[in-house]
Amino acid sequence: MSTEVVVAGADVWKVYGSGDTEVRALAGLNLTIHRGEMVAVMGPSGCGKTTFLNCFSGLDDITRGTVTLEGVNIHALPDRAKSEFRARRMGFVFQSYNLLPVLSAAENVELPLLISGTAPAEARERSVTILRELGLGDRATFRPAELSGGQQQRVSLARALVANPAIVWADEPTGNLDEEGSVQVTTLLRELNLRHHQTMVVVTHDPDVAAKCDRTYAMRDGRFAP
Amino acid sequence: MASVVGGLLLLLLVVAVVVGVLALRQRVSFRIAMRNVRRGRWRTVLIVLGLLVGTAIISGSLVINDTAGTVNTHFTYLAYGFTDEAVYNSSVAQGSAPYVFFPYSTYLTVAGRTAAEPLIAGTTPEIVDTGSAYDRTSGVPETGVQVIGVDPNASALLGAFTYDNGSSTAGPLPGEVLLDDQLAGNLGASVGDHVVLYGATAVPLVVQGIVQDDTRGGFFGGNNAFVTLATAQAFANESGALNFLAVTNVGSLTDGVGHTGPVMTFLNTTLDSLGRPSGLVAVPLLQENLNAAIASGQSIATLFLVLGLFSILAGALLIVGIFLTLAEERKGEMGMLRAVGLSRGGLVYIYLFEGTVYAALSALAGTAVGVLVGYVLIRIYAQTLAVTASAAVVTAFVQSFTVTAQSLLIAYVAGFLLTIVTIAATSGRVSRLNIVRAIRSIPEPPPQRRVYTYLAYVGGTLAVLGGLLFAATRVGTGDVSYPLLGLSLVILGGGLIAARFVRNRYAFSAVGALLIAWAGTVELHRLVLGSSHTDSIFAIFVEGIVLVLGAVLLFVFNSDLIVGGIARLAGRRPKSVAVVRVGLAYPRRRPMGAAVNFTIFAMVLFTVILIAAYGAGETAAVNNSIAAESGGYTFFGYSTSSIANLSSLVAANATLASVISLALPVTYGTIADYPAGWTGAWYDQIYAPPTTGANGQTFYSTNTYNFTATWHGLSTAEVWQQLATNASVAVVDQSYQPVAASFGATPHPTVALGAELPIQNIGTRAETNVTVIGYMDQEFLAGVWVNPAAAAAIGYTNFQGSIFRVAPGVSAATAGQDLKRAFFPYGLQLFNVAEILQKAVQTLQGVIGLLEIFVALGLAVGIAGMGIVALRAVSERRVQIGMLRAEGFTRGMILTSFLLEYSYVTLVGIGVGTGLALWLYYNATALNPSSPVGTFAVPTAAVVSIVVVAYVLTLAAIAGPSWKAATLPPAEAVRYTE
User: CA-to-CA distance for B852 and B308, rounded, in angstroms?
Assistant: First the structure.
């Protein structure tokens, strides 16, 4: 495992509301993730797992503290630069796949490449390649509605990985899947992590998923439990 | 009409009772529906706004109908006043008078009989004649003056004259004349002026007063000089005679006409019993003209309503779109309701109850908006009218704005029913859902084969019905819209059957192409149907619907090709490719969703552009025709007396010699001609330019009239040469040329080239035959042009016609005044072809402009629809937007992709509508040289402004939702659940 730090969070706070209605979703989180690590964040509903993912990935703003991704203070970037940074250096996997229903599997996978400036022909080649690698070579032209839940999640994994991001953020990637699908996706995540030294942060409430990760952070009330 | 209102009220009551009973029986559905109405007030407002357009168009049409009817009847009452019926003989012209003179004793006999009829208040003896006037004090002449002779002591029934200062008088005094406002204005006359009236004799008079153009002073439309009966007899040189009996019924100005039926029966019986002295006939003057006035108002309203049908249909489509969007939004909720036991009928009732509330509100708002729209249109039209009409007419027009309770009721009920029926039909469709798929938001699978089998049966039925309609109406002179619709149904039915066996794309693309070819190609109509069918405003509606349907099918079933082509145009820049791909993915992969808005834009633009093209075509046609119609001359004149030495009189007058470069007398008169195939006589004019004398054959060598067709292909010069030298030939105006019957065309006899045309002097009955050797490319001087010898053969040797050409650089208005001043004793009336045609164009453009505005209301439907769809899309696609932002889409890219998506649908709809309208008009004009509907001209400025306005307004409507989509916080959006 590399010692290179990919994600570093220092005293990260996210506070909603004020006064009596103040909610501390993140309460001074400190975190360091190295390249190639696969880290799980676990905790009960409402503990702040998803807020953690949104704030550390730059999808949401923080109230206080700093988050650096490959040394870049993500929250100091203007919106446009933040978007471009996400396009080039991050991948996302969500519980409900979030594929565009009107695009084919290959077209969905291509999008991050196109956004980050890859030529369309090359983007198509790389998307088909990664779909093939994930066992969906014959489903490249299918639209999400024509795929099973597990297949859709694999397409979303392909989309997250296709641009070789520095880090993949996965929010409950097995939440919508049955047991078999859950095992397949978890295994795949780990394989990809190991094969490509792909840094991954997986937010989950599933102990089986967490068990496959290098490290697990347990969250409660916006803090990592000791 | 009372029965219609009663029927509508009954229908409304029935709907209310049915909905009420259903609400009591389906309480759960009713409660949910009311909750849906209340839960999103702004959405309810938006929906009501979207739904009201159809009602507004109906309401606006009815307001225009009411107002046009009021305006027309207002002017009819002014023109005829208390003259409910008239007794006269107008069958043979006699001098300048429109009616035959008869002895005063005849009046006494008729009046003696009518005194016994209780429904007749009395009969007034009058003389109605025409002539010229000259105000010696102001020095201004006026031709075309209506001289009315009536004695004050015998005309009390017609009411008093009202002076401009408000006081009144019973009538003109001996040696004096009452001028109405119109004539006084034209003469520049004041009270006490010395005026000479020129008729058969010249009568000097003093202006007794200037009276208002009201029910008495504005008799027959004005420009009146009222004198005593004795003065009028002197003017007409008809001592002891009169030519007009005004019959006044009992009752008020507006009530009296109600007795016209029995009074006419009485008058006809009386005249018959008297042996029809002097050929007198009774005419229901006021009723006939009131009917014509109302019909005229209704025809305008019908034009607005039929052209508004596109927008009404667009409104109905918007209703469908809104409810499909609502259904999509509530799919999960509906699935749950079904899961917990609500029947499919229960879902239908929810939408029905909810829709009833929307329909009731939107019909109310739409009726009010329609009234407002009608008022605005009438104000705009009044402004346009101000160019060609007097201030009094404009004021009367504005003041006649009328809204009847009946129209409001009809608009409300029609709008309500239109909305509720559309909602009911849509509710049935949206309530058909798979519970599991609805709850889990799983897309519907493609239709199964049995669906196509069912559609094939529907297609077969359509094809059979269409075939029967086509077969029944293909031959004959009926409305072309029926065979047009029949074959269109056959094509559509064939497509539905074909879809059972081949891919949808092939089946429906073929149907789309065939429908466009069939409805849009006038030559094809002629080939299949012949040229005997009549065109109609409804045919334009049918053609438009069929064309747009064809375009929609091509759009829907080839969306991937269209979008693929556009995407290629966007270039290969990766970010552009990503934005274009995301932006166009929905219309590409879900074209049915875009089809509703596409159809709305295509239909509305089709109508607006077609109207604009028609206006441009007519303007171009008129501008082109000014040269053709004028023959290179400035004025054509008619005089009540012959001016044989016209040229020398002009040459001898220093003023005229300097402004008139050519003056030619023309033999002129009224004839009856008898074209083969025409039942009875056709009354027209005869023109015979001189061939000898001081002017020689000047006309034949200087005119620039052309021919649309000549006998044996004679050249223009050869035709004129023939006419100058041969008394047995004639040329006729273009209206005699056989053409396909067309919408709005008045029936006119036709005559073949080389055919003999009998022409008869309507006074002497002298007759001769002439051979028609050419159709002139003009209709302004309508009638038959012959050699002077042919005119002489039937007794016309006068020179009461005249042609003038104004010298270069001289104002036609100035020259016209000089001519009228010089020739007023002859009763010369001048007609400036260019000026008359240009005024006609201005009036036409005014109506065209109004129609464009009215029909463009449909754009509000499209824009509202697009706004609603965009707003819903932001809500529906929040998660996808969040995902795109997570992947690196910037706000600008999201904004661009949304704008691109709706711009694509809007612009393709606008483009298709515009293209189809221009194509149809091109077909009807440029490809059809004998078209009666104008010349093809692209109204570039109008098209550009309509397209730009439509697109910019749509952009404004979608800008808000698109911006909202772009600025969604990604972290919130990506986890959004409804």
Answer: 10
Contact B581 A57 (CB under 8 A): no
- The residue with greater pLDDT, B565 or B50, is B565
Is there a contact between A60 and B581 if contact means CB atoms under 8 Å apart?
no
The residue in chain A having the minimum alpha-carbon distance to the alpha carbon of residue B879 is A98
pLDDT in tens, A162-201: 988 989 999 988 887 888 888 888 888 898 889 888 999 9
Looking only at the bridges linking them, the beta strands covering A167-171 and A90-94 are parallel
B872: nearest Cα among B960, B752, B938, B749: B960
CB contact under 8 A, B887 and A100: no
Is the complex ipTM more than 0.90?
Answer: no
Cβ A60–B969 below 8 Å, yes or no?
yes
- Torsions phi, psi of B757, nearest 5? -120, 115
Contacts of B588 in chain A (CB under 8 A): 102
A chain contacts of residue B975, beta-carbon cutoff 8 Å: 50
Confidence (pLDDT) at B743: 44
- Do A107 and B970 count as a contact with CB atoms less than 8 A apart? no
What is the mean predicted confidence (pLDDT) over B97-107? 86
What CA–CA distance (Å, rounded) separates A21 from B53?
A: 46
Radius of gyration of chain B (CA): 34
Return the structure tokens found at B373: 């729209």
Residues of A in contact with B889 (CB under 8 A): 83, 87, 115
DSSP B799-845: --EEEEEEPTT--HHHHHHHHHHHHGGGT-EEEEHHHHHHHHHHHHH
Tokens of B784: 């038959």
Q: How far is B422 from chain A (nearest CA, A)?
A: 29
Sequence-separated (6 or more) residues with CB below 8 Å from residue A224:
A29, A30, A31, A217, A218
Residues of B in contact with A149 (CB under 8 A): none
**Chain A hits for B976, Cβ within 8 Å:** none
Q: Could you say which DSSP state residue B220 is in? A: G
Mean pLDDT of chain B: 85
List, for residues B666-706, the tens digit of each pLDDT value.
998 888 888 877 777 777 889 999 988 777 788 998 899 99
For B557, list phi and psi in degrees, rounded to 5: -90, 0
Interchain pair A57, B443: CB under 8 A: no
B440 strand-pairing partners? none
Rounded to the nearest angstrom, the minimum Cα separation between A40 and chain B is: 20
Q: Is the pLDDT of residue B168 over 50?
A: yes
B203: burial class by Cβ within 10 Å (0-12, 13-18, 19+)? Answer: buried
Q: Which residues of B touch A57 (CB under 8 A)?
A: 886
The DSSP string of B237-282 is: T-TTEE-EEEEEESS-TTTGGGGHHHHHHHHHHHHHHTT-GGG-EE
For A117, the closest of B574, B880, B970 (CB atoms) is B574
Question: At residue B625, does pLDDT exceed 60?
Answer: yes
Report pLDDT digits (tens) over B226-278. Answer: 999 999 999 998 999 999 999 999 998 888 999 999 999 999 999 999 888 88
Dihedral, CA atoms, B840, B843, B847, B850, nearest 10 degrees? 150
Q: Where would I find the beta strands (DSSP E) of B105-259?
A: 120-135, 140-149, 161-162, 168-169, 176-180, 194-198, 202-211, 224-227, 241-242, 244-249
pLDDT, position B741: 46
Mutate to test the interface with A, among B437, B559, B887 (most CBs of A within 10 A): B887
Q: How confident is the model at residue B387 (pLDDT cuts 50, 70, 90)?
A: low
Confidence (pTM): 0.75
From chain A, which residues contact B within 8 Å (Cβ)?
50, 54, 57, 59-60, 79-80, 83-88, 90, 92, 94, 96, 98-103, 107, 111-120, 123, 143, 145, 159
Helix, strand, coil abundance in chain A, percent, nearest 5: 40, 25, 30
